[in-house]
Amino acid sequence: MKLAPSVLAADLACLRKALAAVAQAGCDYVHFDVMDGHFVPNLTFGPPLIRCARGYSELPFDVHLMVTRPRDYVEPLAGLGVKILSFHIEATHFAPRLIQSIREAGMGPAVALNPQTPAAALNDVLPLVDGVLVMSVDPGFAGQSFIETVWGKIAMLAEMRERLGLKFFIEVDGGVNTANAARLAGLGVDIVVAGKAFFIAPDQAGFASSIHAC
User: Where in the sequence is the domain holding 87, given as residue range(s)?
Assistant: First the structure.
């Protein structure tokens, strides 16, 4: 599996150091959680910080929009080396149009869904996206445990991918660690997001290697 550490779990006053740690550990992406204080209760950062971060990292960026108006973020994020741009299916009634605009802006569109949102909510957009980001904790709150009911949703998405002959990646965010990584990989997960588990690891390169080995 690939690993995308979430810098939200790092010391943002030392962002340059955190970005260097992600690169030195051999990770695949840098994950940014953009929250607007409306779609989720918390407020984090937006395109200006991501633009600043680009000057200190050569890794592709993986941006997760937890916002009520995801379309407003597409143009500001274009050209910043964002490989994956995920928006929540719960945040828009015009997902195909948004997917098209993300792709036209040079980014890979992915759709995210909350733990309580069924996989069936994505039926109409799965052929259009590059990936699906499955939230395995409630978005907007740090330090949560993996929600057990999400295992079935991951398995269902993997089954849908195979049955429909689609190529979208499956990414999982929330409560990921070395104890559950192998099970995630076994279900067909391609990318995992790790925040606290990565940044508190005494051996960050070893943590990344253990994820890659799954």
Answer: 2-212
Q: Which residue from 160, 70, 87 is spatially nearest to 120, judged by alpha carbons?
A: 160
List phi, psi (to 5°) of 2.
-95, 155
d(CA 185, CA 105): 31
Considering the entire predicted model, what is its pTM? 0.96
Domain at 138, CATH number: 3.20.20.70
The percent of the chain in helix, strand and coil, each rounded to the nearest 5, is: 40, 20, 40
Describe the crossing of helices 15-24 and 47-54 by its angle, rounded to 10 degrees. 60
| Residues in CB range of 2: below 8 A, 6 or more apart | 28, 29, 190, 191, 192, 211, 212
Instruction: Enter the tokens of residue 9.
Output: 């779990």
66 within 8 A of 27, measured Cβ to Cβ: no
203 has catalytic annotation: no
Give the residue from 148, 144, 90 showing the smallest Cα distance to 122: 90
Is 36 considered catalytic here?
Answer: no
Out of 62, 138, 173, 203, the active site residue is 173
Structure tokens at 201: 């690891």
The token pair that represents 38 in the structure block: 């409306």
Q: Out of 33, 36, 62, 130, which one is annotated catalytic?
A: 33
Encode pLDDT of 63-102 as tens digits: 999 999 999 999 999 999 999 999 999 999 999 999 999 9
Q: What is the count of structural domains for the chain?
A: 1
